[in-house]
Write a structure and sequence with these properties.
single chain; mainly alpha; 11 helices; globular
Length: 205
């Protein structure tokens, strides 16, 4: 479920309205998925490629192509819709990698994208970080909550969102995260713990 204008509406309902020619609902459909694509794009754009492309560029290109090819989308469910958007984004990311990074494609394939039921392009959920039996993030990240998760991430403070993306999505070790964020390892671990708590609170809201 999504709630773009204080009126609960499903992706399936937006798809039906968009296919019937409702331009406003079509715009709402794409806007509702922007935060989700921002998170997915982050897993495709490696740090060493950011000088030539960033996640926002990748998302914008994906949305433009999805708008253009909307009539080609034959699915009806939220899972099919998100999988279709991810495939467009992944194709665009691969083009960037081939153009600028050469062997970077193999490295990008190690990233962990969000996945949906019936989609074999990635794991069913974000895997738990190394060295942990279970985490709050693993408990709240479910296949049917991907849009809510992305929206909740977007609502976090920048440093909270950053540490979750680096640890839970890019699966980087704390030492590397500490270096990137210019903090000590204990400070990063404490920040990550607090960020997960804030994410869980945002999801519950």
């Amino acid at each position: 479920m999504i709630d773009p204008d204080s009126q609960r509406v499903t992706v399936e309902e937006l798809l039906v309205a968009a296919r019937q020619g409702d331009a406003q609902q079509r715009d709402r459909l794409f806007q509702a998925c922007r935060s989700y694509l921002n998170v997915v794009a982050r897993t495709h754009v490696r740090t060493r490629l950011q000088a030539k492309a960033d996640a926002s560029d990748l998302v914008q290109l994906t949305l433009l192509e999805a708008h253009r090819d909307f009539d080609r989308f034959a699915g009806r469910s939220e899972a099919e819709w998100l999988a279709w958007l991810r495939k467009i984004l992944a194709h665009n990311a691969a083009d960037i990698i081939r153009r600028f990074a050469g062997t970077g494609k193999r490295q990008a394939e190690r990233e962990v994208p969000l996945a949906q039921p019936g989609d074999d392009s990635g794991p069913a959920a974000v895997p738990e970080p190394a060295g942990r039996e279970a985490t709050p993030s693993q408990q709240i990240i479910c296949r049917d909550r991907q849009l809510r998760l992305a929206a909740a991430l977007e609502s976090l403070a920048d440093d909270h969102r950053e540490v979750i993306l680096l640890r839970n999505f890019e699966r980087l070790p704390f030492d590397e995260i500490a270096s990137r964020m210019q903090r000590s390892r204990p400070a990063v671990q404490m920040l990550w713990s607090r960020a997960l708590k804030k994410l869980q609170e945002a999801m519950e809201e």
